[in-house]
């Protein structure tokens, strides 16, 4: 599903949804630059810029599959059955672009609470997801592929002493038509405080 070029920015935000099943093409290099630059506009208390990204594409995707799936199996995760491994490999082979996501831990910071740094990294990812959608592509934020296996994080150059690994964004073109997501009414989640006793 591509965004109608005449759609308003607000419509683009409310029509975004996750697409797990993706295919080529991925965003072109100049589009990827725009997407990653959008990540830099996230709210960021203290200007710590706690977000970090690792781009994985082309032949490196197969190497990522080998590394991550082998690490998950070595970790003893019982969910990584041969059938699961086969389906994950097939899925990864169809995705043209992965972006690994991490939060840089500001060890020397004594002012900005860590949860605010994590929120800033999450906001940065949301900007990426919105930019991907606004350019007519689709994405899926996955915490599979060994996100919680330290060996995977280390192999991506994100030492666990300095980074909190947050998963992978799979990015590409939707592989099939998917209906718009049904969203709840905001009133189920919002109250107004008036200060009255």
UniProtKB/TrEMBL annotation:
Signal peptide: none
PANTHER family in the cross-refs: NAD(P)H NITROREDUCTASE YDJA-RELATED (PTHR43821:SF1)
Free-text cofactor note: Binds 1 FMN per subunit.
Main enzyme class: oxidoreductase
Cited Pfam families: Nitroreductase
Alphabetical keyword list: Flavoprotein, FMN, NAD, NADP, Oxidoreductase
Nitroreductase domain sequence ranges: 14-172
CDD domains: YdjA-like
Record lineage: Bacteria, Pseudomonadati, Pseudomonadota, Betaproteobacteria, Burkholderiales
Protein source organism: Achromobacter animicus
SUPFAM superfamilies assigned: FMN-dependent nitroreductase-like
Protein name as annotated: Putative NAD(P)H nitroreductase
A molecular function (GO) term: oxidoreductase activity
């Amino acid at each position: 599903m591509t965004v109608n070029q005449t759609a308003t920015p607000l419509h683009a935000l409310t029509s975004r949804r996750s697409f797990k099943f993706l295919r080529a093409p991925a965003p072109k290099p100049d589009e990827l630059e725009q997407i990653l630059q959008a990540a830099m506009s996230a709210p960021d208390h203290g200007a710590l810029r706690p977000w970090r990204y690792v781009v994985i594409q082309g032949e490196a995707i197969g190497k990522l599959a080998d590394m991550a799936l082998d690490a998950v199996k070595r970790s003893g995760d019982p969910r990584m059955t041969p059938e699961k491994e086969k389906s994950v490999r097939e899925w990864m082979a169809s995705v043209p672009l992965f972006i690994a996501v991490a939060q840089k831990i500001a060890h020397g910071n004594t002012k900005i609470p860590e949860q605010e740094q994590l929120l800033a990294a999450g906001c940065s990812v949301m900007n990426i997801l919105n930019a991907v959608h606004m350019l007519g592509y689709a994405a899926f934020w996955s915490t599979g592929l060994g996100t919680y296996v330290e060996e995977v994080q280390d192999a991506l150059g994100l030492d666990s002493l300095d980074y909190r690994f947050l998963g992978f964004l799979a990015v590409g073109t939707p592989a099939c038509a998917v209906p718009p997501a049904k969203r709840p009414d905001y009133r189920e989640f919002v109250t107004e405080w008036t200060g009255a006793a």
